[in-house]
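This section describes the prediction task in plain terms. A model, or a person checking by hand, is given the sequence of a single protein chain and must write out its three-dimensional structure as a string of tokens. No templates, partner chains or ligands are provided. The sample shown here is typical of the held-out split.
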Amino acid sequence: MSSGLPPGPAQFLARISNLLADCPADGSPGAVFLREVRTSFALSAWLACRNPRSGEVSWSGPAHDQGEPFPLKVAQEKGGLLQAAFVSGLESVVDANTISSRTPERRFLSRGRACTWAFLPVSAMGETVACLVLAGEHGRVLDAQILDSIREALPVAALALQTSRLHRELETRVDQRTEEISLLYDVSRSLGFVLTANDLFHLIATSLSRVIDVDMVALTVLLPDDRRFSLRLSGLSEMSAIRRIHREAMSEITRLTGEGPGRIALNITRVELPADQPALRAEDIASMVHVPLVIRSQAAGILSIASREPGTFGPARMRLVYTISNQASLTLDRISTARVAETSRIHSMLESMADGVLLLDRDLRIVMS
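The expected answer:
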């Protein structure tokens, strides 16, 4: 303002409303709000935003000259001012010299030049989406008039932050869904050319690796003439990790079929990745799923996927995995039916021949006589 006085509640609300109204949906309303708070009131200000899904807290907006006031790990500590703002929606205005020693932020706030600190929850529709942290430096006092002006604009800022977050989430979901549809189209088109269970496994493993951060993909096939456990490693893996996914897959098969898996061949392939990636250990596996492949109400196999990243298999990813497993089940059914038809045709041909015939496989084992 031209008079040099800070704006009143109505003036600051109108200014913030106009600025945020001009901010695009994919813009940064937090940065716009912070700049105006710093400019209008000559305060040090930071905005800590929380992801409602993951609970992670991060600093938002343009960086302050003095850096961050404290590490955000204190947001996870009980009894903290930031945690009180997010969990209970409690506002705090404290003096750095008299703040309780039990407060996790105390050891950081008392080091700075500011004497007075404020933690203001930024809430919309009953949800605290952020916390505005204010500091009065160089003798600047956080008086009631300044805080009232900022409080008046907080609901508008909260709605803008929430709208921006929802817009980003929608864009992310659209991108994921588009990627999934493209993948499913490629898979369905390629399945028509799959002739063996081994070809099916490589198609599934390669396809899933395009959209999911996986470390191991395994396909256990339980066809009458083809029983195998095929494993694809995305990099280095210790035997403990391999044994874990194999053991859990066999346990799942026992649960599905009601009997032990019996004799199953083991086939392992590995994709070369940068050497700086550490080898996967059994304890590193944070996410694992097993999806059955069913043919005519009978378990024909199981698809197993493991990742070192926690929360890999959310609802969207599981929908994709189940869709691909259903397609794999249909392909296994087609492969099995084709083999039965081919065997029957060969039997009919042999029975019509006067001479004796032996059919051998590549290992010179007798297949049919």
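For orientation: The first helix runs from residue 9 to 21.
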